[in-house]
Amino acid sequence: MRITVELPEDIAQHSDPGREALEALAIEAYRLRKLTQFQVGQMLGLSRIQTEDLLARHIDLYDYSTEEMEAEAELLHRLHGRV
Q1: Is the pTM value of this prediction over 0.90?
Q2: Which residue among 1, 18, 50, 55 is buried most deeply as judged by most CB within 10 Å?
Q3: What is residue 17's three-state secondary structure?
Q4: Rounded-to-integer distance, Cα 13 and Cα 5, Å
């Protein structure tokens, strides 16, 4: 899909406004949980490591609530009992 955006000349003079806009869109979609980390990487043509680096520069990738951490710990505890 191709999207065209008209930019004022002073903004269009950035090094690569198209790439900056695409990255901003991908980061915001990830933050809103509309895209997975894998999909962000695909969208931007990045490796897993490059994608994680990009996202980590803009958002806290490991921002878990206490409830989420407790749920993860409980799941690991239950899975450990199955081994």
Answers
A1: no
A2: 55
A3: helix
A4: 14
Place of tokens 């899975």: 79
Which DSSP letter does residue 60 get? Answer: -
Nearest residue to 58 via CA among 32, 30, 27, 36: 27
Residue where the block lists tokens 């903004």: 11
Residue 83: both structure tokens together: 């081994």
Extract the tokens encoding 82.
């199955």
Chain CA centroid to CA 25, Å: 10
Task: State the CB neighbour count (10 A cutoff) for residue 14.
Answer: 12
68: Cα separation from own chain's centroid: 19
